[in-house]
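thought: fold this chain, then report.
action: predict
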Amino acid sequence: MTQSTEQTRPTLIDGMGRKIVNLRISVTDRCNFRCTYCMPADNVEFMERGELLSFEEITRIARIVSSMGINRLRLTGGEPTMRKDLPKLIRMLDAVDGIDDIAMTTNAFFLKDQANDLKEAGLQRLNVSLDALDKEKFRHVNRRDCLEQVLEGLKAASKAGFKSIKINAVAVKNFSETEILRLIEMGRSDGFEIRFIEFMPLDSDQVWERDKVLFGHEILDIIKAKYELVPISNSLEIGPASEYNFADGKGKIGIITAVSNPFCDHCNRIRMTADGKLRTCLFSTSEYDLKKLIRSEATDADIVETILGAVALKEPGHKINLDDFERPTRAMHAIGG
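observation:
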């Protein structure tokens, strides 16, 4: 039987003095896309349903970490909208004391049918992965021919009235250059913040090379050739992106320089995989098995102790630029975006 959470918990501060306020929760490793920077084209082995945390188990973890100072949750995958009855989970999480913000990262394919239900359940913000508006480039990177369905999902999300909708585009050299201004123009006209993310070594096919990364300063050069930008001074203290307003007042953009200029010093997040493994960094080489604790009838205090121990050992940084960098054993879809 689950024991109730105590009224007060230690604040989650890691060994580098970073306060952890954000938990990313993967609800499934399944995805209907096969993005080149994330998954192999075929023969993907997914987790068995019984390996996934139940909604009740996820909510228990949320309740525990919220009493430790985490107030922001993000649902990820795989593709989270493939998890059956997802609005039910969002309602359960929205009812947890101390949770102020629930967001989700999605490919938008299913939003045409789900956006209203997700919003009404308590989902506040969306990040939509969209790397290209050119139909052929979209098909190349996602290995699916469904750009129109994604754009329809974005329209439905806009009508549903989410607090914010951001577009995340992975920036790859000799691919993304022609898409940057297209995406920005869509964002400026439709009210989306466009964020460009440097290509990271998380692909299942392990084809990542530093030479394939379109770096943040190169992205800015392309944008500044057409638009004047005004830096937002404290943006890295709030999230992973260096943000810029357009000087004409029409929208803003974000650049996530995960490779060339990592934001690790300001990282305020931890992650939980769909099968209940706690990861303190996207590039962690170790995990902490919360599912095993839950299913062995561990007390909330036992889980708190494990989380505190994990956070105390949170990595100073991801080491992408160092000689001793090790790829995580899981690909992005199995970690949670």
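thought: worth noting. Residues 1-7 have pLDDT under 50 and may be disordered.
final: tokens above.
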